[in-house]
What we know:
Layout (H helix, E strand, L loop, with lengths): L6 E6 L2 E6 L10 H15 L6 E6 L3 E4 L3 H6 L2 H19 L5 E5 L2 E3 L1 H8 L2 E5 L3 E3 L13 H9 L1 H10 L2 E3 H6 L5 E3 L1 H17 L2 H10 L2 H4 L3 H16 L2 H14 L1
Parallel strand pairs: 2-3, 3-5, 4-6, 5-7, 6-8, 7-10
Antiparallel strand pairs: 1-2, 8-9
Helix pairs in contact: 1-3, 3-4, 5-6, 9-11
Amino acid sequence: MSKYEHIELDCRDGLGIITFNRPDQLNAMNRRMMDEIIDALETVLNDPGIRAAVITGKGRAFMAGADIKEYAAQRPEEFDDFRAKGLRLYELIECSGIPFIAAVNGFALGGGFEIALSCDFILAAEAATMGLPEVHIGLIPGGGGLYRLLQKVGLNRVKEMVLLGQSYPAMEMNNWGVVYKVFPEADLMNQALLLAEKLRRRPAQAVKALKGMLNPERIEQPFRRQMEEEGKTVFELFNTTTAQELIKAFSNKSK
């Protein structure tokens, strides 16, 4: 029997699949669900056999943000703890050494969209919609969504999205460069698993290094510092057994 109530975790063939499972609540995230997601992420990241992961939702939503009923009942200290755990959740995805794919099957709003933005790739169903609507309840996005989105679409577009609090269809988000690819809903999960399998086959040490180099904090460093770290990293990788074997194999194949 699963230890989870609001999510499902499936680890197989080198892949981790996390599915949000509160379909009657549009997978809205309450405190227990957040704890379960963090636990599942830690399980995936602590398994050396898992090389890529997919996050998706059941029903009509990927995740329609926080559970507003629980949200409204929180005391200030509970709200602060909820937000801190949320930051932990997003960072586990973004700062991990393996690639994450968000398979957005429906509504991805508020914290749900922030989870997707933390992933390396967003695939979306044709009918999916995404947005940061917090302004409608007198709040702002609290999990880094503003700044992750800003890196993808620019200031003017972000202002439009968050000040109006509108939701946008998957194809429009694809045109803006937020969504990687759009598929019919029936094909979404299959396509996400195909992409995850491609990523799983890439050398783990290079994937981990690339994710580290492309972390938002590293991107904000001065260019000279970036180049120094790039040079150090590629030198370290070149001297590993894995890289030497792959380089020699490629060289022999091309002769």
